[in-house]
Design the sequence.
C-alpha cells in the first residue's frame, strides 16, 4: 500500500476493497482512485485554449480491480447497488446507465493503447456528489484509467491518461467537454491550486493563500438538464468566432491571439453574440491571472470581486447561468463575511462557490436554506473541502 495515502483516502479505498471482497470472495489486485474537483475561476475557458484555476477535493471515486473471466468486464457499481457484465474493450450499450458507460469507455480507450491480457472484474465506489458540478465523471475516469494503466503495464503519461478520459467523454458519453476536469483530477497537489494553461497544457501549482478564509460550495439542487446541448452550442459559437476572426486576420494564432479589435470587427460584421462569447473567454483568462495575484497578496476582497465579475460574465455574456444560481450568488454576497461568489462548472444548475471568512462559514448554509426555500423548491447542500493530491493507483497488498 502506498505509504502516503491520507487517512481520508485510505478509508475510501478500504470501502471499495471490502465491497470487492464481498462480491468476488478475494482481494483485488490493484486499486485506483480519482478525486473530484472544484474550479476557483476560469470557467468555459478550457476548450478555448484559455486559463483556469482548479484543484482536486477530498472526495474520491475508487476502483478495486482484479483479473476476471476471459473477454469480460464484470463491474459492480457499489453506490448504485447494481452490476453489469460487458464485453471487454467494447462500449456499453447506449441505454446503459452512465456509470457502466464510463467503465466500458475507460477500458476500451485503454485497451486501444495497450492490449489487455485478461478479462477484468471490479468494484466502483465513491463519494463525489453526483450531478453537482464537482466532476464525479472525471473522478470515475481517472480512477479507472490509473488503475488500468497499472494493471496493463501501459507506459502512458498522466497527460495521456487525461486525454484518454476526454475521449471517453466524447465517444462514450457524447459530451464535448474540455480537459479541465481530467487535468485537475490527475495533477492536483495537496494544499495547492493549479493554474492550467490550455494552450500549452502547462500547469503551475500555487499556494491556496487566504488562511482565514474558506471556500464553500453550495449545490443549487437544479439538475443540469440543459447543460449538454447548451455546452455544445457554446463550443460551436467560439469555434465560429475564431474561424471568422481568422478570415480577417490570417496571422491569428488561436484564441489567445484574440484582441479587442477582433471582437469589434466581429460585431461590425453582425456577429455580436459570438463576440460576446469570446469576450467572456478573454476577460475570464485575465481574471485567472488576477486571482493568482489576489491570493498571493492575501487580498480576499479582490478575490471576491473577481468571483462576482466572473459570475456576471457567465450570466450576461456567456449565458450559462439560471435563476437559482443567480439568486444563490446574490444571497451569498449579502452574507456578512462573504467576499464574493459565482456559479461553477458547465452551468444551468449545479453549484455556486463562495469565498467566506472561516468564522462566518458555519452559519451560511442555514441562512441560505431559509432565504432560498420560499423562492425555489430545491433542497440545498453545501460543503467545505480540503485540497488534495491527484489520482493514482497501487498494487493492493492489504
Ligand atoms: C464542464 C466541462 C469542463 C469545462 C467546464 C466549464 O465541467 O466538463 O471541461 O468546460 O464545464 O468550465
Sequence:
Amino acid at each position: 500500500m502506498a505509504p502516503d495515502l491520507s487517512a481520508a483516502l485510505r478509508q475510501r479505498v478500504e470501502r471499495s476493497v471490502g465491497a470487492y471482497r464481498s462480491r468476488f470472495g478475494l482481494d483485488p489486485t490493484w486499486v485506483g482512485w480519482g478525486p473530484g474537483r472544484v474550479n476557483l475561476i476560469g470557467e468555459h475557458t478550457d476548450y478555448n485554449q484559455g486559463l483556469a484555476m482548479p484543484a482536486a477535493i477530498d472526495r474520491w471515486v475508487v476502483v478495486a480491480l482484479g483479473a476476471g473471466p476471459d473477454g469480460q468486464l464484470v463491474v459492480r457499481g457499489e453506490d448504485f447497488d447494481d452490476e453489469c457484465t460487458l464485453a471487454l474493450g467494447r462500449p456499453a450499450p447506449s441505454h446503459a446507465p452512465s456509470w457502466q458507460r464510463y467503465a466500458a469507455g475507460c477500458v476500451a480507450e485503454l485497451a486501444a493503447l495497450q492490449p489487455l491480457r485478461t478479462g477484468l472484474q471490479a468494484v466502483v465506489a465513491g463519494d463525489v456528489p453526483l450531478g453537482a458540478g464537482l466532476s464525479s465523471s472525471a473522478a470515475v475516469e481517472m480512477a479507472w484509467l490509473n488503475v488500468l494503466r497499472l494493471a496493463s503495464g501501459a507506459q502512458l503519461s498522466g497527460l495521456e491518461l487525461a486525454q484518454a478520459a476526454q475521449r471517453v467523454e466524447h465517444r462514450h458519453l457524447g459530451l464535448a467537454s474540455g480537459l479541465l476536469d481530467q487535468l485537475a483530477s490527475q495533477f492536483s497537489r495537496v494544499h495547492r491550486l493549479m493554474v492550467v494553461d490550455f494552450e500549452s497544457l502547462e500547469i503551475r501549482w500555487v499556494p491556496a493563500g487566504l488562511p482565514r478564509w474558506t471556500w464553500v460550495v453550495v449545490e443549487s439542487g437544479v439538475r443540469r438538464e440543459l447543460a449538454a446541448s447548451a455546452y455544445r452550442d457554446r463550443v460551436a459559437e467560439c469555434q465560429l468566432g475564431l474561424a471568422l476572426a481568422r478570415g480577417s486576420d490570417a496571422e491569428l494564432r488561436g484564441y489567445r491571439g484574440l484582441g479587442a479589435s477582433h471582437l469589434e470587427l466581429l460585431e461590425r460584421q453582425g456577429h455580436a453574440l459570438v463576440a460576446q462569447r469570446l469576450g467572456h473567454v478573454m476577460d475570464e483568462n485575465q481574471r485567472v491571472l488576477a486571482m493568482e495575484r489576489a491570493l498571493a497578496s492575501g487580498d480576499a476582497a479582490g478575490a471576491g470581486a473577481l468571483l462576482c465579475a466572473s459570475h456576471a460574465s457567465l450570466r450576461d455574456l456567456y449565458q450559462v447561468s439560471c435563476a437559482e444560481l443567480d439568486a444563490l450568488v446574490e444571497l451569498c454576497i449579502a452574507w456578512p463575511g462573504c467576499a464574493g461568489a459565482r456559479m461553477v462548472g458547465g452551468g444551468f444548475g449545479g453549484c455556486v462557490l463562495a469565498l467566506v471568512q472561516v468564522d462566518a462559514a458555519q452559519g451560511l448554509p442555514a441562512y441560505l436554506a431559509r432565504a432560498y426555500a420560499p423562492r425555489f423548491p430545491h433542497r440545498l447542500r453545501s460543503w467545505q473541502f480540503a485540497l488534495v493530491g491527484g489520482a493514482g493507483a497501487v498494487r493492493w497488498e492489504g
Remarks:
- The domain at 213-384 is CATH 3.30.70.890 (Alpha-Beta Plaits).
- Residues 43-44, 46-47, 177-178, 180-181, 345-346 surround alpha-D-galactopyranose (CB under 6 Å).
- Residues 23 and 364 are 41 Å apart (CA to CA).
